């Protein structure tokens, strides 16, 4: 899943299955060419063990929070 719209109320910390708290379990860099441009963030639910994966565009994230 690639999340591009930061203006909605999407919350990666809430499980889409049960609504419980999701915890960031791992961040994996995804190199493109010679630089790391994307990261895969993997979240795991504390209650139902659901796993959600998100691909983060680092350049867009840096620009959005600058």
Could you walk me through the main structural features you see in this protein, from its secondary elements to its overall organization?
The chain is mainly beta. The chain has one domain (1-66): SH3 type barrels, CATH 2.30.30. Helices cover 11% and strands 44% of the residues. It has one helix and three strands. The chain has one helix at residues 58-64; strands spanning 22-32, 35-45, 51-57. It has a three-stranded antiparallel β-sheet with strand order 1-2-3. A hairpin with a 2-residue loop joins strand 1 and strand 2. The radius of gyration is 13 Å and the shape is elongated.
Outline type: elongated
Helix content: 10-25%
Number of helices: 1
Q: Could you tell me the strand content as a percent range?
A: 35-45%
Can you describe this structure in just a few lines?
The protein is mostly beta strands and 66 residues long. The protein has one helix at 58-64, and strands at 22-32, 35-45, 51-57. A hairpin with a 2-residue loop joins strand 1 (22-32) and strand 2.
Keywords:
66 residues, mainly beta, three-stranded antiparallel sheet, 1 helix, 3 strands
Topology:
Layout: E1 22-32, E2 35-45, E3 51-57, H1 58-64
């Amino acid at each position: 899943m690639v999340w591009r719209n930061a203006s909605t109320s999407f919350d990666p910390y809430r499980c889409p299955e049960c609504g419980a708290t999701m915890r960031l379990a791992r961040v994996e860099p995804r190199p493109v060419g010679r630089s790391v441009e994307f990261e895969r963030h993997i979240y795991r639910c504390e209650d139902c063990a659901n796993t959600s994966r998100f691909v983060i565009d680092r350049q867009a994230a840096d620009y959005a929070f600058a």
